[in-house]
Amino acid sequence: MAREAYKEITSLDHKDFVVACTGLHVSVSSAHLGASPDGLTSCSCCGKGIVKIKCPYSYYQVQGQMGIMECCYCDFVVWTTIDIFIERIPFDKEFFDSIKTKLDSFFLKVILPRVLVGEKKPRETHISKQGEFGAMIECDNPSCKFGWIHFGCVGLVEEPTGSWFCQDCI
């Protein structure tokens, strides 16, 4: 319903406008990155683009998908049964490059080691201890330069469950 409403409205202002269904697209230059827009768009006046239809706005996701798919715009659609809002968001290469650096780092430091070595034995809570200045937590990256960190230094009030990495290791 939302895609059809978007297509009907957008077709009025764009020549030869087409919206095609799509699935996952893996980046040609960075195979560990993928995008799953809600549609591929094209028209004679603007070229190729993507459409993302959702209620919660996610600038990072939209910019990331455009960067991965090498598109110059995304039509962001907020749809309800009462109304539809469409905003064309241009690709911001500088912004994408800054988040791609973080995505690459996260992939190399967190995901790839898990894929190559396998998941560590899960535990209910992290190993923690009382330090001179209160509770401490150990970063789950075995190569972490800090190792043990005070709860207060990283804004923790209680022990998290699952894996935990300090800001340097993310």
From TrEMBL:
Pfam families: YqaJ. One of its GO terms (biological process) is DNA repair. Coiled coil: none annotated. Residues 2-61 form the YqaJ viral recombinase domain. InterPro entries: NF-kappa-B_Signaling_Reg, PDDEXK-like_dom_sf, Restrct_endonuc-II-like, YqaJ_viral_recombinase, Znf_FYVE_PHD, Znf_RING/FYVE/PHD. PANTHER family: EXONUCLEASE, PHAGE-TYPE/RECB, C-TERMINAL DOMAIN-CONTAINING PROTEIN, YQAJ VIRAL RECOMBINASE DOMAIN-CONTAINING PROTEIN. This is YqaJ viral recombinase domain-containing protein. It comes from Amphimedon queenslandica.
